[in-house]
Write a structure and sequence with these properties.
The complex is a heterodimer of chains A (about 600) and B (about 400).
Chain A lengths: L1 H14 L8 H6 L4 H31 L6 H11 L7 H19 L2 H16 L7 H20 L30 H30 L12 H32 L10 E2 L2 E2 L7 H35 L6 H15 L14 H29 L8 H23 L2 H7 L3 H31 L5 H27 L19 H31 L67
Antiparallel strand pairs in A: 1-2
Helix pairs in contact in A: 3-5, 3-6, 3-7, 3-17, 6-8, 6-9, 6-10, 6-15, 7-8, 8-9, 9-10, 9-11, 10-11, 10-13, 10-15, 11-12, 12-13, 13-15, 13-16, 15-16, 16-17
Chain B lengths: L1 H26 L15 H29 L11 H34 L15 H30 L8 E8 L2 E6 L27 H4 L2 E3 L2 E4 L4 E7 L4 E5 L4 E5 L5 E5 L5 H6 L1 H23 L12 E5 L11 E7 L1 H10 L3 H12 L22 H9 L1
Classes of the chains: A mainly alpha (about 600), B alpha+beta (about 400).
Chain lengths: ~600, ~400
């Protein structure tokens, strides 16, 4: 395989000796350069993230101060969705639905995986670009179209999709069940179908590039863990996204073509509907067959980034490189056989409940191994506390906190009482909304000099991290308690049940932390956008890291390296290696006589 | 107005931070080429953030302790009102203890190492890249701990999900719809008649098939009453979309799926009266009423009606997103002595009666000469699982 890769790179060498004339359009808009596409994914992901966060602030305000009138509701939601400034009850459900959809797919998958796969894969494995620049460009543009359609659904008169991001039928299938299941749901399905297509395009590109375009000397076990994580993430995506597409297609048929895949025996709006023989539980199986691997698609890239950032900033090799690879593979495999833990009380055969409890608690093991390896990486290191490092340490902290409650949820017996309560919401926000997000921030801070040739302001980075860290725990830690106490999720207001009346203060506290935390993200946005234009010019390797991307010139060029692609002679973690004066040895430096590669010395 | 003020304050704060940063940067003397170095962490930054990391550990611990102190009473873990609930709570206590312990230790190690190993230009990191023994240790320990949790969990799950066919049980149908609950008792023959939404008609809101003799003695109710100490098997149905019958006090939950009959069995062990007298519940009710009084005062000040004070009741909630009023789909659940239950139950009309009465009211002409047979004699409760199984197939 490496022989083929070598030939391909050899051909490319003389093709990029000269610059070809670029227009504004080919450089910034319809670019086929992976570095530009990475930035396009990032910026679009950030914008979608802002929309998602604003939505969360709106519905958190509604929960904390129920049925109160707010000017901002009138202003943002209009008089139909918020008459008199009071949020309509189905619009609350619409907000949580679109919030979840945007955050999981458009921010944490496209914005995290799309950005860093595009940026890092060719650079870190020593390739000129992705295997198919054209397909890569298409994947971004379809992403933008999917984003626009999802946003367009917010302006539909009957409201956007409102059946939760999990869009279970019959609620999502039948328009009479909730207004948002009309046109809004149709647009949701169109947007997601496009999204799945683009995701597959991207994943296939990443897999082929990693397998075929590694430079000379870059064996699979000399690849940075970031690449391993992004590579395995792409494989999971290829295996699981098509199943969501099948669920979406069958749902489209049920909605528009009279079929009954998911529907049977429904009496709604005074009449018996025609559907016969289908089962909503089938939808749940199909949805979660993607849904569960999806959350690992979200977290694995963040884990890969954390490995890189922790190691480079601790000036120490990542601890247990091979164990980390094994864990990534184990997590990927196990992630495909645990989906039923979302369905313990769905009415499926209880025997399945036992099976899925077993497999779910198994997946805790490689996750634990990774967490312990991260902690050992910083032990006896020489920690450079750059903002990216702070976020990576924060990643480990919140991943542990969030992951541990997964042990409760994965146990079918315990899930009976906490399923669909705020306990679940607290769990998945800690691991996805905080942990994975920290991974994304760490990646942005760390690779900003590579993306834009400039440095971000570190003091603003420190403020961003510390305020976010306090607010993140402030929002989601108290949530566990109201969840254990039985407070269901997706409730427009908690005031209909007197037994929840003593939880009002908790909900207000959560909302206040959320408002403050969200406000301080402005520090990040300012830092990010300002530094793109006015940040201090970066050196070629400001973090003194060993990986290949830092051997490219600061000014971007097509084909990444002027002249030949460097050859790799060692693994990427020779930090503070005994026998070397510098505390890092780039991968391109040949081994000395008698020197062994890898972790032994 | 407030939001505008907040935006302005945040913007001003942002500008202040920005300007301060710029001023600070100006005080650093460095050539333009080396200017980027000012954005890389210095020993001073490492020191400050190292201490902050340790401080953050204190924050995590304090947050945990304060949260448990303030809100630890909320999850009524010690007040399970069902037989299997005790097992669930036991497992929950064990699991929570384990994860709290792991959390305590790992967060300590992470943040302490972050503090202890904060960087310094004179320091050198240790080239410690792997250790198979360590990997083995921290793989095998989670395997053992999780295996114990799994085994206990599976044992409890099996007990909950499978009930003894020979045991005497009470069958009750829990019928969910947008946005309320109906209950159908299986009647004196303890067999629920077949049902389908196609048979919904007038007083027969759950669509019982009246041509099935088992339906005639079924009884509808809007409240769920249960005799203490007797196993009840809920047969759950939905009229329209997915709902979920959630009885948090009993540690019970099961989705209601249109087109399918799901089931959940439990034995209530504490009557409503008994629960009302428990100290923890009295405390809880007081706290709730304090909050309610506060809210009531606010409402009255606005000219709206105040709130009644709260007495404890078991409750059934909907716990699967089902539409606009998902947040207000509730029913009262009462657990009482077998005698009180019998009294309440006997006062319920049978479906057969109600349907006949409705027909008579609709057709006042003398078309029905005979009064409806009112079967009041005590019939032995027979558990006929074949009829119930047939209903599952329906």
């Amino acid at each position: 395989m490496s022989a083929v890769g070598h030939e391909l790179t050899h051909d490319h060498d003389h093709a990029h000796g000269h610059h070809h004339k670029e227009t504004f359009i080919t450089k910034y808009i319809f670019s086929m350069d992976h570095k530009m596409i990475a930035k396009q994914f990032l910026i679009t992901g950030i914008v979608m993230g802002i929309i998602g966060v604003v939505m969360s602030l709106l519905f958190r305000m509604q929960i904390a101060w129920p049925e109160e009138s707010f000017k901002v509701f009138s202003w943002l939601l209009g008089d139909d969705f918020a008459p008199g400034g009071v949020m309509r009850n189905d619009i609350y459900l619409a907000l949580v639905t679109i919030h979840g959809t945007i955050m999981v797919f458009f921010v944490l998958t496209a914005g995290l995986s799309g950005t860093f796969s595009n940026l890092l894969i060719p650079l870190q494995i020593g390739a000129r670009d992705m295997a198919s620049g054209f397909m890569n460009m298409l994947s971004y543009w379809i992403f933008l179209i999917a984003c626009l359609i999802m946003i367009a659904s917010l302006f539909v008169e009957s409201g956007p999709a409102s059946a939760g991001w999990t869009i279970y039928p019959p609620l999502s299938a039948v328009e009479q069940a909730i207004p948002g299941s009309g046109t809004g749901m149709t647009l949701w399905l169109v947007s997601m179908a496009l999204y799945i297509a683009l995701s597959l395009m991207g994943s296939l590109n990443y897999i082929v590039t990693v397998l075929n375009l590694r430079t000379k000397g870059m064996t699979m076990t000399r690849m940075p863990l970031t690449i391993w994580a992004l590579f395995v993430t792409a494989i999971i995506g290829v295996v699981s996204f098509p199943v969501l597409l099948s669920a979406a297609l069958l749902l489209i048929f049920d909605r528009s073509f009279g079929t009954s895949f998911f529907l049977s025996d429904i009496y709604l709006a005074g009449e018996v509907l025609h559907y016969q023989g289908g089962s909503p539980v089938l939808f749940e199986h199909l949805f979660w067959f993607l849904g569960h691997p999806e959350v690992y698609i979200v977290i694995l890239p963040a884990m890969g980034i954390t490995s890189e950032v922790l190691s480079a900033n601790a000036r120490k090799p990542i601890f247990g490189y091979r164990a980390m690879i094994t864990s990534i593979l184990a997590i990927a495999f196990l992630s495909t056989i645990v989906w039923g833990h979302h369905m313990f009380v769905s009415g499926m055969n209880p025997f399945l409940g036992s099976v899925f409890t077993f497999t779910t608690l198994l997946i805790a093991i490689p996750s634990a191994v990774k967490a312990f390896n991260y902690i050992t990486t910083i032990w006896k290191g020489n920690l450079q506390m750059n903002p990216s490092m702070l976020f990576s340490i924060g990643f480990v902290s919140t991943f542990i906190t969030g992951g541990l409650t997964g042990i409760i949820l994965g146990d079918s017996t315990l899930d009976i009482n906490v399923h669909d309560t705020y306990f679940v919401v607290a769990h998945f926000h800690l691991v996805m909304g905080i942990s994975a997000l920290y991974g994304m921030f760490a990646g942005i801070y760390h690779w900003f000099p590579k993306m834009y040739g400039r440095m971000m302001n570190k003091n603003l980075g420190y403020i961003h991290f510390w305020v976010t860290a306090v607010c993140a725990y402030g929002v989601f830690f108290p949530m566990h308690f109201i969840g254990l106490a039985g407070l269901p999720r997706r409730y427009y207001t908690n005031s209909a049940f007197p037994m929840f009346d003593d939880m009002v203060d908790v909900n207000i506290l959560i909302t206040v932390f959320a408002l403050v935390g969200a406000a301080f993200q402005l520090v990040f946005f300012w830092n990010f956008f300002y530094s793109i234009f006015y940040g201090k010019k970066a050196s070629q390797n400001p973090w003194r890291a060993t990986t290949l991307e830092w051997t490219t010139p600061v000014e971007h060029i097509h084909g990444n390296w002027p002249g030949a692609i460097p050859e790799v002679h060692r693994w990427p973690y020779d930090y503070s290696k005994p026998g070397y004066e510098e505390d890092f040895v780039p991968q391109t430096v040949p081994l000395r006589d008698g020197e062994k590669d890898g972790g032994s010395h | 107005m407030t939001s505008l003020l907040i935006i302005v304050i945040v913007a001003l704060l942002g500008i202040a931070v920005w300007q301060l940063t710029k001023i600070f940067a100006l005080t650093q003397s460095s050539s333009k080429d080396e200017a980027y170095r000012s954005e890389i962490a210095t020993d001073k930054d490492n020191n400050i953030n190292g201490y902050l990391m340790f401080g953050f550990l204190a924050f995590i611990y304090i947050l945990t302790i304060v949260s448990v102190a303030k809100w630890g009473y909320m999850p009524f873990l010690s007040d399970a009102a069902s037989e299997h609930g005790a097992d669930v709570d036991n497992l929950m206590w064990i699991s929570l203890s384990i994860i709290f312990l792991v959390q305590f230790i790992t967060q300590f190690l992470l943040h302490y190492f972050a503090f202890k190993n904060r960087g310094h230009k004179d320091k050198k990191a240790v080239f410690f890249a792997d250790n198979d023994r360590l990997e083995f240790i921290w793989t095998i320990i989670p395997v053992i701990v999780l295996s114990v949790l799994i085994l206990y969990g599976l044992y409890a799950w099996n007990n909950i999900m499978h009930y003894d066919e020979d045991e005497e049980v009470l069958y009750v149908e829990v019928y969910a719809k947008q946005f309320g609950w109906d209950f159908r008792y299986a009647g004196d023959d303890n067999t629920l008649g077949k049902a389908n939404v196609r048979f919904i008609d007038g007083v027969n809101v759950v669509g019982a098939d009246m041509s099935d003799p088992n339906s005639q003695d079924d009884r509808l109710a809007k409240e769920l009453h249960l005799p203490v100490g007797k196993k009840v098997v809920f047969k759950l149905r939905s009229q329209d979309v997915l709902h979920s019958a959630y009885f948090p006090h009993f540690r019970a939950q099961m989705n209601c799926v249109p087109g399918m009959v799901t089931q959940f069995a439990m034995t209530p062990t504490v009557t409503t009266e008994e629960m009302r007298e428990r100290e923890s519940v009295v405390d809880r009710v007081n706290k709730i009423n304090q909050a309610r009084m506060k809210r009531s005062a606010d409402l009255v000040a606005k000219g709206e009606q105040g709130l009644e004070s709260y007495t404890f009741d078991y409750v059934l909630l909907c716990n699967k997103i089902c539409g606009r009023s998902h947040y207000n789909m509730q029913a009262k659940v009462v657990v009482e002595s077998p005698e009180a239950f019998k009294k309440w139950y006997n006062a319920l009309p049978t479906l057969g009666q109600q349907v006949a009465e409705e027909k008579a009211a609709a057709n006042p002409a003398p078309a029905s000469p005979e009064p409806v047979q009112n079967n009041v004699e005590e019939v032995e409760i027979v558990v006929d699982s074949t009829a119930v199984a047939a209903q599952i197939a329906n």
